[in-house]
Design a protein that fits this description.
This protein is mostly helical. It is built from 15 helices and eight strands. It has two domains: about 150 residues, no CATH class; about 170 residues, hpI Integrase, Chain A, CATH 1.10.443.10. Helix 2 runs antiparallel to helix 3, helix 3 packs across helix 5 and helix 11 packs across helix 14. This is Site-specific recombinase XerD.
Length: about 375
C-alpha cells in the first residue's frame, strides 16, 4: 500500500517506485481521496522525469494528474467544493485516468456532452458540471502550469439553456398551499416568501443570526457572500413565537422514530424531507409547476410591485449585479400597462363647449 498515515500524523504519506527510483514523502492531505490524487500527480511527474532522463519526449499531463492538481489548487477552495469534486471525478471516469489532456479533441468534448445529457440532466447542468469544468481545467493547465493543451471551440459545445420562468404564487394558490403544509414546514415556506431567501439559506438559519434590536437577519448565500435582510414586522411576527429547541430556527416534531430520533423529538428541517413534503403538498393543493425557488420569485415580484425600488430588491436578494435583479422589471412594466389600459378604457370627452373654443381661438390670434 503506497498511501498510509504514519503514527501520530493527521496527513497521509506516500511511497512508490518509478523505473528503479524511489519517491516518498508527505502528501499534506488529510483525506484518502485527496492523498490518492496527490500521489497520482506525483507519479505522473516522476514518470515524466524518467522519460526525460531516458531522452524520451514528454507526453504531457494525464487526466488523473490534471484533475488532482486542479482540485488541490482551485477546486477544494470553491464555495460548492463538494459539487466541484463530484464533477471532476465524473470527468476523470469519462475520459479515463491515463488519457492525455492534450489529446482531447472537439469530437471528444461533443461525446462528453452527449454522455452527460444521457444522464437526464438539463442543458444548464451539462454546461455547468461538464463543459465549464473541463474548460476550467484546460485553461489552468495552459495558463498556470504551462502544459500543452488542446484547442477546443467551446462555444460550439455549449447547449442552449431554457430561460427561467419567473413563477409567482397567486393568492388562491397561496391559500390552498398553506392549508396543507405541516407545522414546521409551513413557517419555513412562509419565511422564504416573506424574505426572498433560498432554500439552503432558510434551512441553515440559526437564532444567533437574528438581530432583534438591530432589525435585521444575517444571511450567508451563494459564494459565501453575507447580506443583511431587514427584519420586517411580518418576519418578526413569524419568527418570534417559534420554539428555541435547537440552534437552527426551523424545526419540526418527529412523527416516526428512527435510529437518530425517537418519535416526538424536535429536529431541524432537512433538505430531502422539505423537498419531498413541498412537492407532495403542491400536488394536493393543485399548485402546478411551482418549485420552492419560486417562493423567492414570489417575494421579488410582490416587493417590486409594492415599492418599485429595484436597488433595495437587489440588496435584499443579494444579487451582485443589478442586471440580475432586472429580470423582475416585467412586474412594473406589466402593472404600468394595466394602468394605461385602464386609463384608455375611460371615455374622454370630445365635445368642447363653444365658448372654450372661441376663447382658445382668441388666445391663438393674440
Amino acid at each position: 500500500m503506497s498511501i498510509w498515515k504514519r503514527p501520530g500524523q493527521d496527513t497521509f504519506s506516500y511511497d512508490f517506485t518509478v523505473r528503479g527510483h524511489r519517491y516518498s514523502g508527505n502528501t499534506g492531505a488529510t483525506s484518502r481521496r485527496e492523498a490518492e490524487r496527490t500521489e497520482a500527480r506525483l507519479k505522473d511527474e516522476a514518470r515524466a522525469e524518467a522519460r526525460a532522463r531516458a531522452g524520451q519526449p514528454a507526453r504531457g499531463l494525464r487526466i488523473a494528474a490534471a484533475v488532482s492538481r486542479y482540485w488541490l489548487e482551485a477546486g477544494q477552495h470553491h464555495a460548492n467544493a463538494d459539487s466541484t469534486l463530484h464533477d471532476i471525478a465524473w470527468l476523470e471516469r469519462h475520459f479515463g485516468k491515463n488519457r492525455l489532456l492534450a489529446s482531447l479533441t472537439n469530437q471528444d468534448v461533443s461525446a462528453m456532452v452527449a454522455a452527460r445529457r444521457a444522464d437526464g440532466v438539463s442543458p444548464a447542468t451539462v454546461n455547468r458540471t461538464a463543459t465549464a469544468r473541463l474548460r476550467a481545467i484546460i485553461t489552468r493547465a495552459r495558463d498556470a502550469w504551462d502544459e500543452p493543451v488542446p484547442r477546443i471551440a467551446w462555444k460550439n459545445h455549449l447547449l442552449r439553456e431554457r430561460q427561467e420562468v419567473l413563477r409567482e404564487l397567486s393568492a388562491e394558490e397561496e391559500t390552498a398551499l398553506f392549508a396543507r403544509l405541516a407545522p414546521g414546514y409551513a413557517e419555513l415556506v412562509r419565511f422564504s416568501m416573506l424574505s426572498g431567501c433560498r432554500m439552503a439559506e432558510c434551512l441553515g438559519l440559526e437564532w444567533r443570526l437574528i438581530d432583534w434590536h438591530g432589525g435585521y437577519i444575517v444571511i450567508t448565500g451563494k459564494g459565501d457572500k453575507t447580506r443583511h435582510v431587514p427584519l420586517s414586522d411580518a418576519l418578526r411576527a413569524l419568527l418570534w413565537p417559534l420554539p428555541r429547541a435547537h440552534a437552527r430556527v426551523f424545526t419540526h416534531r418527529i412523527r416516526r422514530g428512527s435510529i437518530h430520533h425517537k418519535r416526538g423529538d424536535i429536529a431541524p428541517v432537512e433538505e430531502e424531507a422539505l423537498n419531498s413534503h413541498f412537492a407532495r403538498v403542491c400536488k394536493k393543493a393543485g399548485v402546478i409547476g411551482f418549485r420552492f425557488h419560486d417562493l423567492r420569485h414570489t417575494f421579488a415580484t410582490r416587493f417590486l410591485r409594492a415599492t418599485g425600488d429595484m436597488r433595495a430588491l437587489q440588496l435584499i436578494l443579494g444579487h451582485s449585479s443589478i442586471e440580475t435583479t432586472m429580470r423582475y422589471a416585467h412586474v412594473t412594466a406589466a402593472d404600468a400597462k394595466r394602468r394605461m389600459d385602464a386609463m384608455s378604457a375611460t371615455k374622454i370627452p370630445t365635445n368642447i363647449p363653444t365658448g372654450d373654443r372661441d376663447e382658445a381661438a382668441t388666445v391663438s390670434k393674440d
